[in-house]
Design brief:
By secondary structure, the chain is α+β, with helices and mostly antiparallel strands. The protein has 2 domains: about 110 residues, Orthogonal Bundle (Arc Repressor Mutant, subunit A), CATH 1.10.10; about 80 residues, no CATH class. Helix content is about 45%, strand content about 25%. The strands form 4 sheets. A 3-stranded antiparallel sheet has the order 8-7-9. α1 packs across α3. The longest helix has 25 residues. The structure holds zinc ion.
């Protein structure tokens, strides 16, 4: 599944028949393709707009369209389409243009996906996650942990000492936990993420 990204390549104005015209929305080209099957991209979008919202993104008609037309084309309920468009807009992944109907005077909103910002958003998310993982790693390196044998909880040494090394839930003994496996897993995840981020920004 491929989402096409359209972008105006020429927005310069020109004069025709004595009046000012615009190339805007006339000339378009595909600037790059987003693979919506990519688990990272798909996961990010589903997390953002939900499964139904993802259907909207995946089946969005080309060019500028009204929310009603999107609902028809995607088979997604109109209120979900509207919610999805709003979230996409907030995350700079969709744009709209207002057009006033010359007869009725009603304003029409014409929507278009603009996923060109998607990679930036993903990179920001990854960096946030990386920061969290590094904080966790620091915490794991600095602290000593005790656990209940029945997996009721994991406690810092200070807390376990206050509890006299007795589990507050089952009353069983709290035992020292070797947290090297946790540290190893965190380091691995951090390395993977750093690789992804550095390859993405090339
Ligand atoms: Zn316990």
């Amino acid at each position: 599944m491929i989402g096409y990204l359209w972008k105006n390549i020429c927005t310069a104005d020109y004069i025709q028949d004595g009046s000012l015209k615009s190339y805007k929305n006339k000339y378009k080209m595909v600037i790059f393709l987003v693979n919506l099957d990519d688990p990272v991209i798909k996961g990010y979008l589903i997390n953002l707009v939900g499964e139904e919202g993802f259907k909207v993104v995946a089946n969005m008609p080309e060019g500028e369209v009204t929310d009603e037309k999107i609902a028809q084309a995607t088979g997604v309920l109109l209120n979900i389409v509207r919610r999805t468009l709003f979230i996409l807009y907030e995350n700079r992944l969709a744009i709209y243009r207002r057009e006033r109907d010359t007869d009725s005077g009603w304003l029409t909103y014409l929507w278009q996906l603009d996923l060109s910002n998607l990679n930036n958003q993903l990179e920001l998310e990854s960096k946030k996650l990386l920061k969290n993982l590094k904080t966790k790693l620091e915490f794991e390196n600095d602290k000593i942990f005790y656990v209940c044998e029945k997996q009721d909880g994991r406690f810092l040494f200070e807390t376990a000492a206050e509890l006299e090394f007795k589990c507050p839930i089952c009353g069983g003994e709290l035992k020292y936990q070797e947290n090297e496996p946790v540290i190893k897993a965190l380091k691995q995840r951090i390395n993977q993420l750093e690789e992804t981020i550095s390859s993405a920004s090339v």
